[in-house]
UniProtKB/TrEMBL annotation:
Main location: membrane
Source domain of life: Bacteria
Native source species: Desulfosarcina ovata subsp. ovata
Family: Belongs to the FliO/MopB family.
Signal is among the record's keywords: no
Keywords: Bacterial flagellum, Cell membrane, Membrane, Transmembrane, Transmembrane helix
A Gene Ontology term for the protein's cellular component: bacterial-type flagellum basal body
Top-level taxonomy: Bacteria, Pseudomonadati, Thermodesulfobacteriota, Desulfobacteria, Desulfobacterales
Protein location: Cell membrane; Bacterial flagellum basal body
GO terms, biological process: bacterial-type flagellum organization
Residues annotated as transmembrane: 12-32
Keyword Kinase: no
Name under which the protein is recorded: Flagellar protein
Length: 125
């Protein structure tokens, strides 16, 4: 029985140690994510927007990027970004669709918030 309890104790220690390591990794990832959002200006008032993106081939695309007052036409490859043309924002804004669907990231975050609020409301009862 002594050998069996030693194996059980070693197994519990191993699982606990793995839990501590995974928790530390999760905390570090959360901290890094928070830090990069602060440094990159994760606020909602972004002045640079990708208006459209058209893929031409593997790692090749043409992008319309809106900056205050101008729209840049960029050629993007795997190792380079080239300015192809500069357009006035007023001339291109008529042709771009106003109601573009939201990207997956913000939509998923909003759903998670709603799910969390729903769970919090059920637990409070």
């Amino acid at each position: 029985m002594n050998a069996g309890s030693d194996i059980l104790t070693a197994g519990v220690k191993m699982v606990a140690s793995m839990g501590v390591v995974l928790t530390l990794i999760a905390v570090m990832l959360y901290g890094i994510r928070k830090l990069t959002r602060q440094r990159m200006g994760g606020g909602s008032g972004k002045s640079i927007r990708v208006l459209e993106n058209h893929y031409l081939g593997v790692k090749k695309s043409i992008c319309l990027v809106g900056v205050p007052g101008k729209v840049l036409v960029l050629g993007v490859t795997g190792d380079r970004i080239s300015l192809l043309d500069t357009l006035d924002e007023t001339s291109i804004s008529d042709r771009l669709p106003e109601n573009t669907p939201p990207s997956f990231g913000p939509m998923f975050a909003e759903r998670l918030k709603r799910f969390g609020r729903g769970r919090m409301g059920k637990d409070d009862r």
